[in-house]
Specification:
CATH architecture of the largest domain: Alpha-Beta Barrel
Order of helices and strands: HEEEEEHHEEHEHHEHEHEHEHHHEEEH
Structural class: alpha/beta
Low-confidence stretches: 1-24
Largest sheet: 8 strands, mixed
CATH topology of the largest domain: TIM Barrel
Number of strands: 15
Strand content: 15-25%
Distance between the termini: 42 Å
Number of helices: 13
Length: 440
């Protein structure tokens, strides 16, 4: 017999369907305290693959991983024969949950007014009911570095779990990085230029000055706040914008700079060296042109989708396809990202990494570059990013190789909780697959 609570839940869902609304989230069943996955090939990423392994989860953590080990008798068993267990795919810089429909402004919460907004926080702005999040989970993406964009200093990125009810449920770390968009240094001197050379130079110089002044002011602000309480030193008013930059200035979190052209990248590297910042280049379409410099400085590069046109008409056709491989050969730490400013494409990240492998990126590094390396970058590798005893039981079960375009995610867990992998795309597919057929 159905309980009254179940009947009410069904009624709410039915009513929501009639009126075209998204039904409320069902209350999930409690995850079993202990369960085992047996027979699958486990890919720890931090170590060699373990075929026909037994992975035991206890209280939301990985309790053990062993080849041919016995399942824990205290809980249910998942048959993983012929399947693969991977850490979740982890795009490090995305607006997932901050943008729903790009053309509908009321659904956008990815940028603030003004050029300098380091206090804009992705963990507060994220919409956990976004229809794009379940689609991403179906592609194996259970974690994401979510960041504001726009302006010069866009805001603070957060490492987020893509399952939960509140930001307290879902936030792994915030702030995890400061996001900066380096000003465009190009000057259009052609007769068709929209504005004069003088105005373009003025705009460029003003933007660079805003960026550099913000970090200088924050450094002075930090020193002043630290000195408060000493004899004769007055108390300073709190400033949320400047305070948000302090973790970057003391090296606690990286500064992720979006820059594609070589002049932007070189300028950002010089500035970060002067400010003693932990710099990460994001985008980096031209990064291969100065790969040796980046390797020498120990600066990682977050590579966006390799399926892009070269920046210049005289570049090789595969300049972007082979960018990651060239950087790796030079010794640069490469991290993969896709759909940074277009969350609808984020589900394609494993396919994009496979494309980079086809153009020379080492296959043995490919999975780590979209799982463990992003976790290290955002400072959460002690909990996620690889499959190790004691880490969070957050992983995916696939029916094939993660770098094979034909793979499917057949099950997923976050903190030991099994996820419902239905999403809007699957619902639409089933709806139209089962549409009424003409009778004549």
């Amino acid at each position: 017999m159905r309980s009254p609570i179940f009947a009410v839940a069904v009624s709410l869902c039915a009513a929501a369907a009639v009126f075209g609304q998204t039904p409320p989230k069902p209350t999930p069943a409690a995850a079993p305290r202990v369960y085992s996955i047996v027979g699958a090939t486990v890919h720890p990423v931090s170590g060699p693959d373990i075929p026909k392994a037994t992975l035991v989860v206890r209280d939301g953590k990985i309790a053990s991983i062993a080849a041919g080990g016995a399942a824990d008798s205290g809980g249910p068993v998942v048959d993983g024969t012929g399947k693969h267990v991977y850490p979740p795919v982890f795009p490090p810089m995305t607006v997932l949950g901050l943008e729903e429909i790009a053309a509908a402004r009321p659904t956008l919460d990815k940028e603030e007014i003004g050029d300098v907004n380091p206090d804009a926080r992705a963990d507060i702005a994220i919409n956990l009911d976004s229809e794009q999040i379940p689609v991403a989970r179906s592609g194996g993406i259970l974690l994401a570095g979510v960041t504001p964009v726009g302006g010069i200093i866009s805001g603070s990125a957060a490492a987020m779990k893509l399952d939960g009810w509140t930001r307290e449920d879902t936030t792994l770390k915030t702030p995890a990085a400061i996001t900066v968009f380096w000003p465009d240094l190009r000057i259009d001197r052609s007769p068709r230029a929209a504005t004069s050379v003088r105005l373009q130079e003025k705009k460029r110089d003003e933007e660079l000055e805003k960026l550099k002044n913000a970090f200088r002011d924050a450094r002075a602000y930090g020193k002043a706040r630290a000195a408060e309480g000493q004899t004769g030193i007055p108390k300073h008013d709190a400033d949320a914008k400047l305070a948000a930059l302090l973790p970057a200035l003391d090296g606690s979190i990286p500064v992720v700079v979006f820059a594609n052209r070589v002049d932007q990248i070189r300028d950002a590297v010089k500035w970060a060296g002067e400010e003693r910042l932990k710099l990460v280049i994001w985008g980096g379409a031209d990064a291969w042109r100065m790969a040796d410099e980046l390797a020498k400085a120990g600066i990682p590069v977050i590579v966006d989708s390799p399926v892009a046109l070269p920046l210049r008409n005289d570049d090789d056709y595969d300049a972007e396809f082979s960018n990651a491989a060239r950087l790796d050969r030079a010794g640069v730490r490469v991290i993969f990202n896709d759909g940074g400013e277009d969350p609808s494409n984020i589900r394609n990240l494993p396919q994009m990494v496979a494309m980079a492998v086809a153009y020379g990126f080492p296959r043995e590094k490919a999975v780590a570059a979209m799982t463990l390396e992003p976790a290290k970058l955002l400072g959460v590798a002690d909990r996620v990013g690889s499959l190790e005893v004691g880490k969070d039981a957050t992983f995916i079960l696939t029916d094939g190789d993660l770098l094979d375009l034909r793979f499917h995610v057949v099950a997923a867990w976050v903190d030991g909780r099994a996820l419902d992998l239905t999403d809007k795309q699957k619902r639409l597919y089933e709806r139209y697959r089962n549409r009424p057929r003409p009778t004549s």
